[in-house]
Amino acid sequence: MTQIDLPAFDREWTRFESWLRSNSPADQATLRRPAGRERLTELESRLGFDLHPELKALLEQHDGAAEPVAIPGSRRVLPAGAFLPSGHRLSGVDDIVMMYDVLVDVGEDNIEADLWEEDALAVNLHRCVPFALPNDGGLAFIDHRPGPSYGHVYEMGIGSGDLDGTLWATSLTEFFRALANALEAGAAFLYYWPAPYDDESGHHCLEWEIHP
Fold this sequence. Notes:
Number of domains: 1
Shape: globular
CATH architecture: 3-Layer(aba) Sandwich
CATH superfamily: SMI1/KNR4-like
Oligomer: single chain
């Protein structure tokens, strides 16, 4: 099992959020207040296992990111808050509960299909916890299975039938470190490149473009 260094997680998350605050304040402003201890306890009770310490630390910072709202004085909506690759938005406790149920159902369907080995990710989704959602039906989640993959960060396009999953990082710490490195250097995270979305109002937010 990967060693967990929560101070390192706090540093990398702070780097990432600081970049948003300085360069994309509309995105940073969507971050909600911390999830309370009682809500996290209820979430763990619903899951039937403990949250990975890094995911718990993330929720203790912010209970996800709010949906976009109309620009003041305009009917247009700025797509702020979807600042992770593929337009993923950090999930709060309520979204995690909802999408965990979806993951469990998909995993059960995969088990019934009998197409995967018993240690495949696709048939162990009941041990995975979503932490971010895009607009296209996929999701990003953290592997909670005991063993070498514990804490790994995956993205899976469930709506597209991509059930093998794409490994984004071996931990949330590594994920936010890689994102912060990419943003500070203007470089790529995997095949995602940071790009600003500029609205005619002068507001802007972070998007990621795909370049194979």
